Amino acid sequence: MKKIYMDYNATTPVRPEVLDAILPFYREEFGNPSSVHWAGRAVSGAVEKAREQVAKLINCSPAEVVFTSCGSEGDNMALKGTVAALRDKGNHIITTGVEHPAVLETCHYLEKNGCDVTFLTVDSDGMVDLRQLEDAITEKTILISAMWGNNETGTLFPVEEIGRIARKHKVRFHTDAVQAVGKIPVDVQKAGADLLVLSGHKIGAPKGVGAIYIRRGTRMTPLIHGGHQERNRRAGTHNVAGIVGLGMACELAGQNLEQNAERMAHLRDKLEQGILNQIPDVKVNGHRTQRLPNTLNVSFAYIEGESLLLNFDMKGVAASSGSACTSGSLEPSHVMGAMGVDVALAHSSTRFSLGPDSTEEDVDYILEILPPIIQRLREMSPLYPGNK
Amino acid sequence: MKKIYMDYNATTPVRPEVLDAILPFYREEFGNPSSVHWAGRAVSGAVEKAREQVAKLINCSPAEVVFTSCGSEGDNMALKGTVAALRDKGNHIITTGVEHPAVLETCHYLEKNGCDVTFLTVDSDGMVDLRQLEDAITEKTILISAMWGNNETGTLFPVEEIGRIARKHKVRFHTDAVQAVGKIPVDVQKAGADLLVLSGHKIGAPKGVGAIYIRRGTRMTPLIHGGHQERNRRAGTHNVAGIVGLGMACELAGQNLEQNAERMAHLRDKLEQGILNQIPDVKVNGHRTQRLPNTLNVSFAYIEGESLLLNFDMKGVAASSGSACTSGSLEPSHVMGAMGVDVALAHSSTRFSLGPDSTEEDVDYILEILPPIIQRLREMSPLYPGNK
Amino acid sequence: MYTEKVMDHFSNPRNVGEIENADGVGEVGNASCGDIMKIFLKVEDNVIKDIKFKTFGCGAAIATSSMVTEMAIGKTLDEAMELTNAAVAEALDGLPANKMHCSNLAADALHEAIKNYRENHS
Ligand SMILES: Cc1ncc(COP(=O)(O)O)c(C=O)c1O
Ligand SMILES: Cc1ncc(COP(=O)(O)O)c(C=O)c1O
Ligand code: FES
Ligand code: FES
């Protein structure tokens, strides 16, 4: 069966060039970069090269890049590391209601441990209100944590303006850029970010590696204490192959970034238009212009997400859903909830996320199989007025 | 030039069988195990298989295994997760002065944050005193953290007795078994451990993956909050390839564990005897019988470790040293210090650690090149009495 | 980690040894590192005619010892007093940042030896 992967926001295959780059580091160059002998030396150069590749993609200096094991670790480090380091300054954090659980759950944990957290609301496009943000800042505010691009809807926050507000009030600004990096230009200087998190497996590097940008001079308490790795900012033997892969993936992402974005946006728009043209009672979730070029989130009214995904799956199509039924949690997507999408439509929300290997044929195939699937499921649905 | 790797305690090459096992997970089976579609399904089975392989090696149930990114993360999780979860019970931790920095530095951090930490002393063999341990327990003691095998000297703690004392006083017992797992039989039931940490790259799996055993019913606060992975105990997209590799490495380690240990001990003993027979003024550091089978730590009096390692390196031999001059820190090895080894001899300490690929020829080669190197360096040393 | 020059001076150190009845001896130790460096001088007409060293220390310590002896030989005592650790490190094409302190040892030992000579011959 034809397999069509439309879930690049969940994870991506390792790019062939990345796989080639990492293979020597399993058996031939297997040393510990902290070692002084031949086995360590070869490897420590490779780690530093990767640091430069990451730094170049996000426009910072290599010394500001700290390697982590994933995006979640980075977000935990950004939040907990800031709270621990700035305890004397204040205990108030501002974030948004649509962040990834790595930020939200960490904020809930911090709330139980003496922090005040303001969760900014978003409008029906998933957009924050900058006025509301600025009004939320108090004397005790130590951190604004606002994601660059939303993983479910693709909505892009105005990070440059958020950064400006943060600087104006001398508040630290962290942005979870896990979904933005590699898909659109990400520049920590322009964004005025003090902390930025990215994750390898979203951009063609292996799972199990990520990075956090820590602006020079930003006081941080480590999340993982121990050896002297990463200039005492993150202990643990380096995941050398993963780091080399992340570096290569960043380099590849930087090449033709804008052309690739345009190509994906074109395919995504074709999918969106095709769906809207063919299927009634469909709602697009997320901002129509301020949106990741690869992401399309649509609610097919009267249909529950998991049942749709299972039907897709039987036809070889991999996508994802904001339905609680797929996630094992009770509540449907908190992102849909924050946008005021009603519960039934939240359960119907379906995310198609494209990647560099997505093709016009993939889109055509989905547009071909989708209408009968939707029709069949709707006919089964007690909510569907067409059945009444 | 011949390359002889004698630094397996620092890290190991990925075993060929492990590399074969992980390769399909980069491009073919690249899904996110949390996804419900075909790309996720294949992969979640592989993660659960690896969990069983790890569980089997340390004799626990798969549900008690949580995957991490490294040994350091595991140790941080064990300590910080216990302190946060048992805040109502007490704030006293007992550990030893010879733990790995992942434990020691975390303890120092916790001390600054309201914990009392007792650092048990060790004798000149690096052995703890069980009486002293038991005496240190107070009403407020929530955790004993004692390593299974020491990374520098190989000294093995009497974990079963420590576990018994912990159970008797209803105190939680964590053991850092990063160096023990795969080298000697490790059984969490026999040891009576509640928490046990291991790291993949020490046993032929890739760097960037590890695991923590958490006995069923042990309350723990996560170190990394976020998604529902690992039953809410560790968020972050699974490092699938790394986890599969760790599983395979555990399976391989379990096969012929005792024969391999005997083989390494034989080679290690030959190296030790050869050194003692040929070179005067040599001190073996660590316990003579309670010792990892692959580890030999010797101080060559009058010689500084890094200069010895560089000479080894020029002959293709990779080893490591407890000298501050190699580590970039100011103090020489805290392990040597805790054992009462004087500063000059601590600077002279050199660790040879063998692995499954070590051969008799490797040992012979080292025994051949060692005497002239030692002689030359001693002649350069202002401390060497033979020169006076 | 180390430059070729450092490795050259480390593997073939110049002027290793002691001078019997030296005119000046300097010994310095860095307590934190536990390293010790000793320099022996033979002086004629205020010029360093011969110089030898002994060092217990890392690769950088041995290489800087060797280099400082090469740089000092033939110099007047005043010129030799001007030799800085930075100059020694530079002559070795640089040292890793965490090894710069090792080069202090070499220059210090030389200066100590000269002071010792001056004390003995004043
Ligand atoms: C005893 C011990 N504990 C913990 C660690 C840390 O493991 P990792 O480097 O995987 O973080 C090591 C290895 O360096 C070790 O030897
Ligand atoms: C916006 C966002 N932040 C954080 C994460 C967490 O990244 P990781 O799965 O690498 O921990 C993800 C991915 O799941 C994400 O989409
Ligand atoms: S209907 Fe089955 S999980 Fe929601
Ligand atoms: S002599 Fe100790 S670091 Fe160089």
TrEMBL record, chains A, B:
<dbReference type="InterPro" id="IPR016454">
    <property type="entry name" value="Cysteine_dSase"/>
</dbReference>
<dbReference type="GO" id="GO:0031071">
    <property type="term" value="F:cysteine desulfurase activity"/>
</dbReference>
<keyword id="KW-0408">Iron</keyword>
<feature type="binding site">
    <location>
        <begin position="71"/>
        <end position="72"/>
    </location>
    <ligand>
        <name>pyridoxal 5'-phosphate</name>
    </ligand>
</feature>
<dbReference type="InterPro" id="IPR000192">
    <property type="entry name" value="Aminotrans_V_dom"/>
</dbReference>
<feature type="binding site">
    <location>
        <position position="237"/>
    </location>
    <ligand>
        <name>pyridoxal 5'-phosphate</name>
    </ligand>
</feature>
<dbReference type="GO" id="GO:0030170">
    <property type="term" value="F:pyridoxal phosphate binding"/>
</dbReference>
<feature type="domain" description="Aminotransferase class V">
    <location>
        <begin position="4"/>
        <end position="365"/>
    </location>
</feature>
<keyword id="KW-0663">Pyridoxal phosphate</keyword>
<comment type="pathway">
    <text>Cofactor biosynthesis; iron-sulfur cluster biosynthesis.</text>
</comment>
<dbReference type="GO" id="GO:0044571">
    <property type="term" value="P:[2Fe-2S] cluster assembly"/>
</dbReference>
<feature type="binding site">
    <location>
        <position position="151"/>
    </location>
    <ligand>
        <name>pyridoxal 5'-phosphate</name>
    </ligand>
</feature>
<feature type="binding site">
    <location>
        <position position="179"/>
    </location>
    <ligand>
        <name>pyridoxal 5'-phosphate</name>
    </ligand>
</feature>
<dbReference type="GO" id="GO:0046872">
    <property type="term" value="F:metal ion binding"/>
</dbReference>
<feature type="active site" description="Cysteine persulfide intermediate">
    <location>
        <position position="325"/>
    </location>
</feature>
<dbReference type="Pfam" id="PF00266">
    <property type="entry name" value="Aminotran_5"/>
</dbReference>
<dbReference type="InterPro" id="IPR015421">
    <property type="entry name" value="PyrdxlP-dep_Trfase_major"/>
</dbReference>
<comment type="similarity">
    <text>Belongs to the class-V pyridoxal-phosphate-dependent aminotransferase family. NifS/IscS subfamily.</text>
</comment>
<feature type="modified residue" description="N6-(pyridoxal phosphate)lysine">
    <location>
        <position position="202"/>
    </location>
</feature>
<dbReference type="GO" id="GO:0051537">
    <property type="term" value="F:2 iron, 2 sulfur cluster binding"/>
</dbReference>
<dbReference type="GO" id="GO:0005737">
    <property type="term" value="C:cytoplasm"/>
</dbReference>
<dbReference type="InterPro" id="IPR017772">
    <property type="entry name" value="Cys_deSase_NifS_bac/arc"/>
</dbReference>
UniProtKB/TrEMBL annotation, chain C:
<dbReference type="GO" id="GO:0051536">
    <property type="term" value="F:iron-sulfur cluster binding"/>
</dbReference>
<dbReference type="Pfam" id="PF01592">
    <property type="entry name" value="NifU_N"/>
</dbReference>
<protein>
    <submittedName>
        <fullName>Nitrogen fixation protein NifU</fullName>
    </submittedName>
</protein>
<dbReference type="GO" id="GO:0005506">
    <property type="term" value="F:iron ion binding"/>
</dbReference>
<dbReference type="InterPro" id="IPR002871">
    <property type="entry name" value="NIF_FeS_clus_asmbl_NifU_N"/>
</dbReference>
<dbReference type="InterPro" id="IPR017787">
    <property type="entry name" value="NIF_FeS_clus_asmbl_NifU-like"/>
</dbReference>
<dbReference type="GO" id="GO:0016226">
    <property type="term" value="P:iron-sulfur cluster assembly"/>
</dbReference>
<feature type="domain" description="NIF system FeS cluster assembly NifU N-terminal">
    <location>
        <begin position="1"/>
        <end position="120"/>
    </location>
</feature>
